[in-house]
Amino acid sequence: MSELILKTAAQLADALAAGETTSVELTQAHLDRIAAVDGDVHAFLHIDAEGALSQAAASDARRANGDALHALDGVPIAVKDVLTTTGLPTTCGSKILEGWVPPYDATVVKKIKNAGLPILGKTNMDEFAMGSSTEHSAYGPTKNPWKLDRIPGGSGGGSAAAVAAFEAPLALGTDTGGSIRQPGAVTGTVGVKPTYGSVSRYGLVALANSLDQVGPVTRTVLDSALLHELIGGHDPLDSTSTTTPVTGLVDAARAGGTGDLKGVKVGVIKELAGEGWAPDVMAKFNESVDILTKLGADVVEVSTPSFQHAMAAYYLILPAECSSNLAKFDAMRYGLRVTPDGDPSAEDVMKASRDAGFGDEVKRRIILGTYALSSGYYDAYYGQAQKIRTLIIEDFKKAFEQVDVLVSPTSPSTAFPLGAKLDDPLAMYMQDLATIPANLAGTPGISVPAGVSDVDGLPVGVQLLAPVLEDARLYRVGAALEGAIGPVLSIDKLEVAR
Amino acid sequence: MTETLVPFDEVLERYDPAFGLEVHVELNTNTKMFCGCPATFGGEPNSQVCPTCLGLPGSMPVVNAKAVESAIRIGLALNGSIAEWCRFARKNYFYPDMPKNFQTSQYDEPIVYDGYLDVEVEGETFRVEIERAHMEEDTGKTTHIGGATGRIHGADYSLVDYNRAGIPLIEIVTRPILGTGAKAPLVAKAYVAALREILLGLGVSDVRMDQGSMRCDVNLSLSPKGSDKLGTRTETKNVNSLRSVERAVRFEMSRHAGILDAGEAIFQETRHFHEDTGTTSAGRPKSDADDYRYFPEPDLVPVAPSREWVEELRATLPEPPAEKRARLQAEWGYSDLEMRDVWAAGALTLIEATVAEGASAQAARKWWMAELSRAANDRGVELAEVGVTPAQVAEVQKLVDGGSLTDKLARQVFEGLLAGEGSVAEIIDARGLAVVSDDGALGAAVDEAIDAQPAVAEKIRGGNQAAAGALIGAVMKATGGKADAKRVRELILEKLA
């Protein structure tokens, strides 16, 4: 095993800039690591060794000429399989898209390509990003590198596990209700959901368009800031894209790294604690709050009463949008086609293909959403959910009149055993209790490792939330907390060790 | 079920018709509604497509600002209100030519609402109230191969062309039009014609009903005479010519009356219109509760046209067609009947252009309404597509006014133009159509004519100038019609003074 894989992305960028290593060398090191452990972890659905190495060689040639495109030019990355990539399959973890190779790159993929980051491959996920354990992938679950019988979180368990297992220094994830942050929490990695609209969604195969956001998955807060600045910014192809430049995040992370939080007001969310929250998680969370106080932050408790309805609203809005988004998978133009015997009509082919191509969780949400949008039920379900959404936005607004950032545990428990919640959708949905409000309000959030549980030795995450377009606050406070807590993840703690 | 058709006049003895029109108009923007693909007609199948209009996973729509501008101008021209804030919505249903299996349209927040259009039928003005006009995208075009009907049922396979998918559409929906009685079919036709004229004037669409860039759905119901409750309606889809609109209303009135007379109920459904027979046949059942599960399109931000922009666009509107017709009629001195004929023949803008090229209004009307209308009719094309331009008509008339062509020769020039024989000058040259007004050549012919008809010459000498006609005719015959008749008359009168 090459020691290169233990370095952070920022360290790798420095090493490349100093000529201490080459992109080919470190890309190969990560490909070797993937070859060694991914049979156990199953973080990747597609590995593109050849493509990554040729991109790495091109990066080295540029750098030799002094033409590096970006600080991260040459640092390899893994991409969640929900983002379109030319020349690489994009399955969204679904059988219905098996073998589909998109003819276009997602804007974020274009950005990382234009910056010279070799793409190692596409990472596993719950089918169409529906789930909190990656067990709903049609291609088999991803395992938590800390303990292979545990879930890596979801839906972006593949990206989080790849980064946690040192198979990739960086990854892209997407977060609709917590799919970046919750996997971050249970794998001891950093995950950021940026402000809605600040990172292009063009080429992100939509789960719920009004909630989805692309974000970084890394091992440090600074690495997230570097990747976030690279992928952020306005995109004319995404109408919901904000025009505010995405800058100052790296500076904020560096500033936070000094450990001084004097003058920062932090609000502990009263509603995200108590029943349903595992004591070992709460213990680590309380330690983090104490640390924030020690770093000079002014910590108070704030109440966000509408958050208790967030889950209900989320499970109406999301299925409604996804029931419509997934209608396009009808076997007419791409993807799986199942032709029933006899003389089937186009409609028969659509039905058979969708029946065979979608998993149970996807079907469950399509049915839920179709029902919620039906004539006569729309006002009672979708309409009410939108009102709750407005109330949650109001709650955030009021809270941010009192404090600069909000804090809560990211996830109610540490990584649970594979299969433990598969037959209980509601228990699975509860994993996202703390993360969903930010998606409903469009506010940014980060999950930072808070330490490991005294009970099972598995990582616990702490979530920070900031107002819309104030993502920099997450990086300042997150980096300060990270520095004070010290390293949580190390390769020697993993079941897939050296 | 055999259909009993009640004669039209009888229908009106027992029933009042109510009808409404939904007109889809393809805008002539350069690009599609939500992507940058060309929106032109006639490209190779599936050559004008991209991830967005193909609905590929991950693709996203961006609203075409030019289409919004066109929608607003249409709304203003139809005396409508322009929404200060409106959204697109998804209309969810499955169909193979719908790339996303939802159509991005507008639902309860249309960009235009509460407009109207006044139409005139046989001297009576009817106000057609427009409930709304909204923006949406067209679907792909499916061609069913095999089977007898060209419809999906019975077809061996179907071909889908997505070039049309995503072309910007405006759907203009009227409120139910009541109280038109026997004139219902004509009011329906006149409304579509007036709408077409307005859209042409705005330059926002080709409005070619034959190419599908303007498509009409006709809703119709009957209620017992004097009742204020609307009956059950049928919706006849894709009625694609002005004449068909009239016929569809007429046919459905007769058909509905037959069913109601038998004491049966009208089945709410869509109907197909058959151009060849002027009849309709059953389509699919349609209930008011067709559940399209509309919800606001989350990938698009609301459209909120500023009032300043709306007023800027209002200033770009052309003169309303009805007002323009009144002005031109006064300027041209046409009778009401002449004006109505000119409009009905689609000659108004042609005559306007011809007059602008220097011809008199009377002369322009004469050519367009006689020779050229006849030719268009014979060829089954619109007058504007007959193959002669207003500039050419004006050029020919100028030669007539200058005496170098007679009307008879001018007709031959038009024959040549219609046959594609070249320019006016080329045709005159090739066909040898120049008028003979040279006194030397004419003088000989006049002398011959006088010698040949001494009795007529005597009458003229005796002061009967009207008798000169016989001699003029002879001279014209002798010169093959190329003589300047006016000059011939002068010469005859001089010689016999």
TrEMBL record, chain A:
Catalyses which reaction(s): L-glutamyl-tRNA(Gln) + L-glutamine + ATP + H2O = L-glutaminyl-tRNA(Gln) + L-glutamate + ADP + phosphate + H(+)
Assigned EC number: 6.3.5.7
SUPFAM superfamilies: Amidase signature (AS) enzymes
GO molecular function: ATP binding; glutaminyl-tRNA synthase (glutamine-hydrolyzing) activity; transferase activity
GO biological process, one term: translation
Top-tier EC class: ligase
UniProt domain Amidase: residue ranges: 25-474
Active site: 80 (charge relay system), 155 (charge relay system), 179 (acyl-ester intermediate)
PANTHER family for the chain: GLUTAMYL-TRNA(GLN) AMIDOTRANSFERASE SUBUNIT A, TRANSAMIDASE
Subunit comment: Heterotrimer of A, B and C subunits.
Family: Belongs to the amidase family. GatA subfamily.
Function, in words: Allows the formation of correctly charged Gln-tRNA(Gln) through the transamidation of misacylated Glu-tRNA(Gln) in organisms which lack glutaminyl-tRNA synthetase. The reaction takes place in the presence of glutamine and ATP through an activated gamma-phospho-Glu-tRNA(Gln).
Protein name: Glutamyl-tRNA(Gln) amidotransferase subunit A
Organism whose genome encodes this protein: Nocardioides luteus
Lineage, opening ranks: Bacteria, Bacillati, Actinomycetota, Actinomycetes, Propionibacteriales
From TrEMBL, chain B:
Keyword line: ATP-binding, Ligase, Nucleotide-binding, Protein biosynthesis
Protein name, entry field: Aspartyl/glutamyl-tRNA(Asn/Gln) amidotransferase subunit B
Keyword Nucleotidyltransferase: no
Gene Ontology MF term list: asparaginyl-tRNA synthase (glutamine-hydrolyzing) activity; ATP binding; glutaminyl-tRNA synthase (glutamine-hydrolyzing) activity; transferase activity
HAMAP family in the cross-refs: GatB
Segments forming domain Asn/Gln amidotransferase: 349-496
Cited InterPro entries: Asn/Gln-tRNA_amidoTrfase_suB/E, Asn/Gln-tRNA_Trfase_suB/E_cat, Asn/Gln_amidotransferase, Asn/Gln_tRNA_amidoTrase-B-like, GatB, GatB_Yqey_C_2, Gln-tRNA_amidoTrfase_suB_CS, Gln_synth/guanido_kin_cat_dom
